Amino acid sequence: QVQLQESGPGLVKPSQTLSLTCTVSGGAITTFSYYWSWIRQPPGKGLEWIGRINYSGSTVYSPSLKSRTSVSRDTSKNQLTLQLSSVTPEDTATYYCVRAYQVTNWYDFWGPGTQVTVSS
Q1: Share in percent of the chain as helix, strand, coil (round to 5)
Q2: Local confidence band at 17 (pLDDT 50, 70, 90 cut-offs)
Q3: Which tens digit of pLDDT belongs to each residue from 53-108?
Q4: What's the rounded Cα separation, in Å, for the pair 110 and 87?
Q5: What CA–CA distance (Å, rounded) separates 55 from 52?
Q6: Which letter does DSSP use for residue 111 in this model?
Q7: Count of CB atoms situated within 10 Å of the CB of 46
Q8: Order of strands, sheet of 3-7, starting from the edge strand that comes earlier in the sequence
Q9: Around 12, how many Cα atoms within 13 Å sit in the side-chain half-sphere?
Q10: Is the per-residue pLDDT at 116 higher than 90?
Q11: In degrees, to the nearest 5, what angle opens at C-alpha 90 toward C-alphas 89 and 94?
Q12: Which of 15, 36, 81, 97 has its CA at a distance of 20 to 30 angstroms from the CA of residue 74?
């Protein structure tokens, strides 16, 4: 069974870079036809898509966050990473790592999410 687990600091200071890791088990992140997305949900608000990386390492980012976002991977560790620079309190949210099937764009597996608070 595919499982995803987010990890990283729960508190980040403004202007710093948020760095999160998604550890994947039960399936390789290089598996054809799947891509991996980062999604966040601010308190009291809806889900916001951040960006994705596919099985070959190709990335796509949300236009509103592209300038501050970097999604990468470590195939040897079967891990995904998210870096969000120059954070502000508006970046406070629960961050999720999600797998999707590229044909249907269906998110079939979600990590439990990790809460990140941006505060000085």
Answers
A1: 5, 55, 40
A2: very high
A3: 999 999 999 999 999 999 999 999 999 999 999 999 999 999 999 999 988 989 99
A4: 24
A5: 10
A6: -
A7: 6
A8: 3-7, 18-25, 79-84, 69-74
A9: 25
A10: yes
A11: 95
A12: 15
Q: Please say if the pLDDT value at position 43 is more than 90.
A: yes
Is the pLDDT score of 31 beyond 90? yes
Distance of alpha carbon 53 from the chain centroid: 9
Residues, the chain, total? Answer: 120
Tell me which residue has tokens 């099937």.
101
Structure tokens at 120: 């000085």
Residue type, 77: K
- φ and ψ at residue 2, rounded to 5 degrees: -75, 130
The angle at the Cα of 116, spanning 115 to 118, to the nearest 5 degrees, equals 150
pLDDT at 41 over 90: yes
Name the β-bridge partners of 31. Answer: none
